Amino acid sequence: MNALSKDQAASREKTLLTALLLSAPGPLFTGYAMLTSHSTTQLADFIRRGVELVALFLSWWVFRQLQRSAAQSEADRARLERTAGFSVAGAMICSGLVMLGVAVSRLSIFEPGGKVIFGLVIAFLGLLANTWFWRRYTVLTREQYSAVIAAQMGLYRAKASVDLCVVAALAAVALAPSHPATRYVDILGSVMVAGYLLWSGLRMARAQWDRRAA
């Protein structure tokens, strides 16, 4: 595998940093939206964004270390790349487990309602941004493979898919909060999000173990 040129490395680091900075306010906004609504999906989305922010920071830090320390051995570089991959996989798995737990615990007592418009707007903007970063990381990975960037591509594919589920669930709550089916749509949204995150996280973790064993 060829090393990244300075321009390629700078472009990727800039993309990682931009993604990190844009994601930083996410937990604050979704936290406020969670407090003003009774949506299970909104609570799960708040937890998910917080955990993912930690993974984004670690990925940016690892990539920066890899580019700043050219004298590192291949073993050390591979270890750092696996650290970034496992952090992304761990973020997905932890988010999925928490979201599934929230959905199950509130299944018998939850009634949809409250103000979800703000959360819906945030989720829709997140869908647009995460789709763009997914495409961006896909292009960068095809141009020149990097384990850290490839992990981000997988993360943002999951983030965009999750945001789509969140938008659908919150839209149902906003449009028909009193409809009998809305309660199950919101809970189902959380379960679908949790399932996809768990599947994506476990698949990525397995890929990292395979790299370690190779």
Automatic annotation (TrEMBL):
Residues 28-206 form the Cation efflux protein transmembrane domain. The chain crosses the membrane at residues 46-63, 84-104, 116-134, 155-175, 181-202. InterPro entries: Cation_efflux_TM, Cation_efflux_TMD_sf. Keywords: Membrane, Transmembrane, Transmembrane helix. Its main location: membrane. It is a multi-pass membrane protein. SUPFAM superfamilies: Cation efflux protein transmembrane domain-like. One of its GO terms (cellular component) is membrane. It is found in: Membrane. GO terms for molecular function: monoatomic cation transmembrane transporter activity. This is Predicted Co/Zn/Cd cation transporters.
